[in-house]
Amino acid sequence: MNQYTVYILKCADGSYYTGVTNDIDWLLYEHKIGYDTKSYTFKRRPVELVFTEHFGDVNKAIAFEKQIKGWSRAKKEALMKQDWGALKELSKNSSGK
């Protein structure tokens, strides 16, 4: 069974990058060495892995990645801290964003 990982990287400039992969170790290595010079993270290295969530279904992983990408910084940070109360409150106060 394949495993897909939704991840968030914290970049050196304080921004977050969200993605999905089926090989988190390789993906993290690519981001850290700057494998793709056109990548968002290339000029924002070093990066730090701050969140992962694993899925058995690629479609669910992609849907979750897209959902997170639409969230505010505060919601992403609540997710990273696993602060479900804050995440719920932020969802109420921002119409889902």
TrEMBL record:
InterPro entries: GIY-YIG_endonuc, GIY-YIG_endonuc_sf, UPF0213_domain. It holds the Pfam family GIY-YIG. Coiled coil: none annotated. Gene3D superfamilies: GIY-YIG endonuclease. Residues 2-78 form the GIY-YIG domain. Belongs to the UPF0213 family. This is GIY-YIG nuclease family protein. It comes from Imperialibacter roseus.
